[in-house]
Amino acid sequence: MFCVDRRFFMNFDWVLLSLLFMVCGMAFLNLYSATYPPLGGVPPYLKQCYLLLMGVAGIIFLISFDYKELQLWNYPIYIVVIVLLVLVDFVGNSAGGAQRWINLGFFQLQPSEPAKLMMVITLASYYSRKEVANGYSIQDLITPIILMAVPFLLILVQPDLGTALMFVIIFISMTVFAKLRLSSYIILGLSGIALAVLGWLFVLKPYQKQRVETLLHPVKDSMGEGYQILQSKIAVGSGGLFGRGYMEGTQGHLHFLPERHTDFAFSVWCEEWGFVGSFFFLAVYFFMLFWGLHVAMSARDRFGLFLAFGVVALIFWQAVINLLMILGFLPVVGIPLPLFSYGGSSLLTTLLGMGILMNVRMRRFQTESTLESCDL
Amino acid sequence: MIKWNFLKELGDISEHDQAAQDGLRKRILVTGAVVVFFVAIILLRLWFLQIHKGEEYKNRAENNRVRIREVAPPRGDILDRNGKELVTNRPSFNVVLVREDSNDIDGLLKRLSVVLKEDVSVLWERIRDAESKQRHIPVRLKENLSWDTLAYLETHNKDFPGIRIEVFPRRFYHYGDMAAHIIGYLGEISKNELEETNTDFYRGGDLIGKMGLEKLREKELRGEKGNSSSEVNARGFEQQLLTHVEPVPGNEVRLTLDIDLQQVAEEAMDVDEKSGAVVAMEVKTGRLLVLASTPRLHLADFEGGISSKNWSALLDNPKHPLINKALQAMYPPGSTYKMVTALAGLAKGVITKDTTFFCPGHIDFGNRQYNCWKHGGHGTVNLKRAISESCDVYFYQVGMRLGVDALAEYANKLGLGLKTQVELENEKSGLIPTKEWKKKKYGVKWQDGETLSLAIGQGFNLVTPLQLCQMTVILANGGKRYVPQLIESVTDADGNVLESFTPKLAGELQENERKYLALIREGMAEVIQGARGTARVARIEGINLGGKTGSAQVVRLEQYKHLQEENIPYKYRDHALFICFAPAEDPEIAVTVVVEHGLHGGSSAAPVARAVMQKYFANRIAVDQIRKAVTQ
After folding, report:
1. With 70 as the cut, is the pLDDT of residue B68 above it?
2. Is the CB of residue A357 less than 8 Å from the CB of residue A292?
3. What ranges make up the beta strands (E) of B111-175?
4. How would you list the strands of the sheet with B226-232, edge to edge?
5. Which of A223, B108, B322, B433 is deepest in the core (most CB within 10 A)?
6. Which residues of A19-159 form beta strands (DSSP E)?
7. Which position has the higher pLDDT, A259 or A113?
8. Does the pLDDT at position B201 exceed 80?
9. Does B64 sit within 8 Å of A251, measured CB to CB?
10. Cα→Cα distances B333→A51, B539, B558, Å
11. Count of CA atoms in the C-beta half-sphere (13 A) of B459
12. pLDDT tens, B249-307?
């Protein structure tokens, strides 16, 4: 399988690796502060170390073969993930009334995370295989809609509305990117609005509606729903220009910030490093995403381009939603900041996505013939 | 090498592919613009929060860290006149769960349900009710733990992560529900009350007096809040105490009530589950010794908000426990009103001490016959006998000669038809009709026949038991109308007396009126001591009482006329009234009893009054008996 020669090192995406290294480094630094003092058991930063090592192993595995293989393995992967999602509804551990995890002993697997990456691979595979000249008609979209709807519904019943909506967002991003006919836009748009209205009326639970309403009046209920958002804004704002100093943030260390090492990890960063530190982090982070788009542009073929684009879209939308939530523009939806929020499944999934990007980048010049000649 | 790859690539990819790829690449550039757009929004927001509003949020973070916690003051005690504790405070302990601190709520609740002897589903219900609240906010699982449970949870707290004990002050009622209407109860402050009070004192969730003296004396009882500022985290763990200001306890309120007497009165009313009121007053001061209304309220039901089930049970109860019948209910005074007619007759010169009328058992007036309660008639009666035997015909004659307005004048002079100004809520003023009143109210002229009914206490007349007691006090003390009072003293925590009882005179009879009171008192003494008195059952050996019975018609229904009294439906039976004072020679105490639908003052109301009197004079009676025994 391995094809280790000079080209491997020459074509390897060192830029992406160093950007990834910087982001993970800052995440680790922040995690140490956000979880200090440790509550007992294995401290989270140590767990993060193990997870990073596992992620590196995953990346090495992913770049060892041509990404074209993913297209072959697409449906087996899809089925495995769906089985995991079904399983989680029966043997999953519940937290806060929702079944989200499968306990693997050393690790709590949240199948909805790898499912997001699976979705990217599946859609990339479909759109690269089915190519049309003037954009996709609505008939062409039936298959991808079904492929998206199955995991969407399975995650919706857990219930985890935020993660389920990510599937819709990925679907929309990649489908629009693939180009639609005007009629498809209109039909999809109208049915989307209809579904959203029906969902608000019949599917959303009262606490979810309340979250949306809280966003509109956060101060009114400062010990209830609006509490997290308010505390997050206080944390971010109190950072000022230069921050309160590493390990000095009172919002995080005195436990005013809930979920401070997971969903609200970036609030802790903003508090301790200020505008300057936040700007630096965002610059590195979004440069990494731009680099991902660059990878997509330089991709060898249509599948690679869609894959790279999908991975970037997946990380980008999660990041934007998480950041807008932390800054008080969106309700608390439980979407992490990829690579930065603590959470094994999300971290591993994002690292695997990075592995896919690197794979696409590495093989931007290769053709199947060269691959075969090399694949001993 | 690179060049080689590049050439290879060009050779492999078709022209068409190339064109499609280029289309997609253009779209990637658009995507880049979308990313830039969102990055710009995020950076602008960061700038707004951190630079523009940075100082403000820094202050808020500082305030977050230093949390000022209010320390509730102990509420003032309520004592009776002899210093017996009626209401004091005691701590109660609640179990609360902080969901964020527990990773296995299911298992925790299962273990907890055994300790609390509470079904798991009940505990889950509490948690589900708080589902919409954030996970760091404590959820109350059970209130008012027993000592055993508390001790177990405290010693095994390691087994119950996320469980905490909350201390909460509770009112403790030493005499159960005695004097419940007067003491009143506490409840969580409502939104309206928060807006109305318009002070900085109260916060949502505070307790405030909702009824009775707890409400009226709220300002004195509540005390002043203290505060402590400490560095805390959001879980409520105090890291470090910074400042502490002790709360000022509420003032102690001592009532004029004698709880032992109150208890005797209420227990006497409990016999046969009588519904009604008992009032006892000091004749020479206006101090209220007993103010009872039955059925009683159960104060414990009101704590922490009354359940809708209990509330609707109270509303639906035909005996109206929510009403303090001593001052919020009005009854026709019945024969007790004959005191008014007698005094008015004497004072206006219509009759003298020796005026007699012949009672054949009825009197014809207009085209109607007005009956005496004694069908055979009383024969020739003077005032004293008319009072003691409650002859209706005698008072028809007097009333006929006086007219309605003269009766009303003296009713008012004896306090009827006027609020007594007692310190309790929703006092009713009663109703004493005049010619003018009827014209205004019904637009009809006063009928002289109505005056006859009025003279014996039937008709439009309505009075409260408290007014009747005040009237008895005026008759007994020689004409002084004292405001009935409930507060003996108010003392602050340092022992300074802030308020102490002084009699308040609301009015006094003229000398030419006062001189007739002794005669009326003699008549009233005959009611009890006389051989044919109507309330001979109230006699107490060693103490002479003066009194008057009354029964107030509820409805005049022909269909019930022929029935035995016991067979009349409860709600159509007459109210029983009894007023009395003692000792007859130099009165000290006046007692009024109203038993709703009790039929006869003598049989149902008088024994209650007798029990109160007996308790009040218990020592003197005992001393008397010893003296007698010794002399024999």
Report:
1. no
2. yes
3. 139-142, 163-173
4. B66-71, B226-232, B238-245
5. B433
6. 93-95, 98-103, 108-109
7. A113
8. no
9. yes
10. 89, 22, 22
11. 23
12. 899 999 999 999 999 999 999 988 899 999 999 999 999 999 999 898 888 888 767 77
Write out the E strands in B145-196: 163-173, 186-188
Residue A226's pLDDT is: 62
What tokens were used for B324? 């303090």
In chain B, the residue whose alpha carbon lies closest to the alpha carbon of A271 is B50
Per-residue pLDDT for A375 more than 60?
no
A44 token code pair: 């989270």
Task: Kindly write down the DSSP assignment for every residue of A63-79, as one continuous string.
Answer: HTS-THHHHHHHHHHHH
Within 8 A by CB and 6+ apart from A65, the residues are A1
Task: List, as ranges, residues 198-217 from A with C-beta within 8 Å of B.
Answer: 206-207, 210
- At A164, give phi and psi (nearest 5°): -60, -40
Instruction: Share the mean pLDDT of chain B.
Output: 85
Q: Which of B335, B388, B551, B604 is catalytic?
A: B335
- b (16+ CB within 10 A) / e for A341-359: bbbbbbbbbbbbbbbbbbb
Kindly list the distances between the CA atom of residue A252 and the CA atoms of A347, B233, B339, in Å, as whole numbers in the listed order: 22, 9, 80
**C-alpha distance from B3 to closest chain A C-alpha (Å):** 10
Which token pair is A66?
A: 């041509």
The residue to which tokens 């002897």 are assigned: B117
Tell me: the pLDDT tens digits for B312-335?
A: 888 888 888 999 999 999 999 999
Structure tokens at A319: 């990041």
Pairing of strands B589-595, B575-582: antiparallel
Q: Shortest CB distance from B45 goes to which of A231, A235, A329?
A: A329
Task: Answer for the pair B56, B210: CB distance below 8 angstroms, yes or no.
Answer: no
Lowest mean pLDDT among A167-171, B295-299, B305-309, B549-553: B305-309
Task: Answer yes or no: are the C-beta atoms of B93 and B166 closer than 8 Å.
Answer: yes
From B419's Cα to the closest Cα of chain A, the distance in A is: 46
> pLDDT of B471-485, one tens digit each?
999 999 999 999 999
Q: Determine the pLDDT at residue B7.
A: 39
Give the DSSP H/E element, type plus range, for residue B506. strand B505-508
Cβ proximity of B420 and B327 under 8 Å: yes
Q: Pseudo-torsion of CA B233, B238, B239, B240, nearest 10°?
A: 130
- Per the CB < 8 Å rule, is B234 touching A324? no
Cα angle value B27/B33/B37 (rounded, 5°): 145
Q: CA–CA separation, B98 vs B139, rounded Å?
A: 6
Instruction: State the Cα–Cα distance between residues B460 and B442, nearest whole angstrom.
Output: 12
The residue extents of the domains of chain A are: 27-38+54-374
Considering only the beta carbons, identify the residue of A271, A305, A367 that sits closest to B12: A367
Question: Can you give the pLDDT at residue B317?
Answer: 87
Per-residue confidence band for B97, with pLDDT thresholds at 50, 70 and 90:
confident
Q: Cβ distance B601 to B535 under 8 Å?
A: yes
Mutation pick from B42, B49, B57, B67 vs chain A, by most beta carbons of A within 10 Å, is B49
- Encoding tokens for residue B618? 């218990």
Burial B113-129 (b: 16+ CB within 10 A, else e): bebbebeeeebeebbee
Q: Tell me if A33 sits within 8 A of A249, measured CB to CB.
A: yes
Burial B253-272 (b: 16+ CB within 10 A, else e): bbbbbbbbbbbbbbebbeee
What element of type H or E holds B232? strand B226-232
C-alpha–C-alpha distance, residues B227 and B233, integer Å? 17
| A80-84, A147-151, B39-43, B308-312: range with lowest mean pLDDT | B308-312
Which residue of A7, A290, A366 is in closest CB contact with B32? A290
Find tokens 């009313």 and name the residue: B269
